[in-house]
Amino acid sequence: MSDIADIVSREVPAINRYLESATETLNPMVQPVVRHVLLAGGKRLRPLLTILTARAMGYRGDDVYPLACSLEFLHSATLLHDDIVDGAKLRRGRESAHVRFGSTHTILAGDVLLALANRLVAEYDNPELTKLLSEALLQTATGEILEIAHLRDVDLPLSTYFSIITGKTAYLIQASCQCGAVLAGASPALIQAAADLGHHIGIAFQLVDDALDYTSPATVSGKPTGGDLKEGKVTLPLLLYLQGLPFEERRRLAEDFRQDQLSAEDIEYLRGNVVAGGHAERTREMAGEYLAKAQAALAKFPPSPEAELIGDVLAPMLARDK
Amino acid sequence: MSDIADIVSREVPAINRYLESATETLNPMVQPVVRHVLLAGGKRLRPLLTILTARAMGYRGDDVYPLACSLEFLHSATLLHDDIVDGAKLRRGRESAHVRFGSTHTILAGDVLLALANRLVAEYDNPELTKLLSEALLQTATGEILEIAHLRDVDLPLSTYFSIITGKTAYLIQASCQCGAVLAGASPALIQAAADLGHHIGIAFQLVDDALDYTSPATVSGKPTGGDLKEGKVTLPLLLYLQGLPFEERRRLAEDFRQDQLSAEDIEYLRGNVVAGGHAERTREMAGEYLAKAQAALAKFPPSPEAELIGDVLAPMLARDK
């Protein structure tokens, strides 16, 4: 564990310094919005994965930070837009950017960050990297659209649920790992291993998030407990719970949920039932299965301290409580 | 004129076919939003400039359409976001996308188009093109932000007004010309001439727009007459009018405008005064001066039928009534 602590304590401040210096190049009116979303204490998972993957594939250059941070900027841009789209009032326990700064500045600040991310990547003169970034934005926005199209859709097939979380979350994490491998000039097989690693981490990450939404008190997660239910988002814990209900009960609940007819008490009761039925826990177990797949992808990396570090990071990801 | 008609009648349908085929690759839920903004009858100025500039610089390849259309997609994405930002209800005489489809789908469709534009350009494996596109988005969003920061600011210096229109309009038109020259592998001097051409066309284009906002009836332009005044946008006709007012009258009007204290009748009266004072006409004259600068930049192009065509397009641009 001390190796992880070491690398996090070395790399995260370096990432944050780069994020800040790039933010300072932006129009002064955008900077407060950007700092609000960037500096609210994210885990920097995406840039860390880019850096560790590049290092694990033998890359020793100093110029990994702009690439790594471009993925964090892209992530931040999608957060800015998504909070407007979701009408979310809170982000990591603080008010969302659009609540603080208004939708206008927040939409435009998101666009500026998308442009900045693209520009940072363009500087590498490597079209593969540019394509990865464009594809990541396309997939992320498409995943969001799919999620919105299926709001309150309790008949959501599991395959569609996985398409949603692959798009809105996993693809960008996949691109983070893949970018590191491409920067390192890795072989196609290793680039694929990096992509698989990121994809499985991304799915696991979102599954844990979806479980936490049912179990974690707002004081820990910074988001309201049961927020997904309140917003009408149908995620795995609810889908698993509904699968186990008798037909008539399921039909009635489904109808009420679809019509947004549940009171705050109904929702809290439903949330309690989902948790009591073990469905949040089962969702976490499935996250564990995806982390095992991530480990299998990682096993294809050449042996290195950084590959070991990535492996060490996976278990705590599953155990996290926010 | 028949040469222009020829090329427009040949190239615009080809551009529209490519725009449609690229739109069909997008998620089905995004397509109606994209078609709404794309197919509302734009002039395709940006892709036409890319194609004509590339041809004028000797490029004979068939693969110019994705690049040309990436600039139209980028333009459409910024229109989608800007109409939300401006609260605009109309776009080219039809209801805006966010009014028809809601802000959520419109924000995300804009992000999808930004990603698509980047992906189309990434396929050229030419980092210069990618950088131009990123810079264009960055400048456009920054110009919008600057404009919003100066809403109702009647003390706006002319230099800031020109910074706003350079960012929000001219930079993307500049990039359209520059991309054509870069694709053609033109010399740095010719790439600069293309950039200058696009910059001056862009400024002229926005000046004509700002004049038309004061003079063109909604039935012709598809936008309400005096829309900028109603939205609190301070553009050149108003700035020129204010410069000519006696100090006390100017101070009073400025204060009322800043505080949004003008009634619909006051605004219509003000609009009439601006026009009667010749300030919309003077704005058009300034557009003519920028078109002369555009002609000077064009004169540096090697002689070609396409360069002549660009020249022929400039004069009607000034005379347009919508």
UniProtKB/TrEMBL annotation, chains A, B:
Domain of life: Bacteria
CDD domains recorded: Trans_IPPS_HT (cd00685)
Residues passing through the membrane, by range: none
Cofactor(s), names only, from the UniProt record: Mg(2+)
GO BP terms: isoprenoid biosynthetic process
UniProt-listed Gene3D superfamilies: Farnesyl Diphosphate Synthase (1.10.600.10)
SUPFAM superfamilies for this protein: Terpenoid synthases
Keywords: Magnesium, Metal-binding, Transferase
Molecular function, one GO term: metal ion binding
Name of a matching Pfam family: polyprenyl_synt
InterPro entries in UniProt: Isoprenoid_synthase_dom_sf, Polyprenyl_synt, Polyprenyl_synt_CS
Family as reported in the entry's similarity comment: Belongs to the FPP/GGPP synthase family.
Name of the molecule in the record: Octaprenyl-diphosphate synthase
Source organism: Solidesulfovibrio carbinolicus
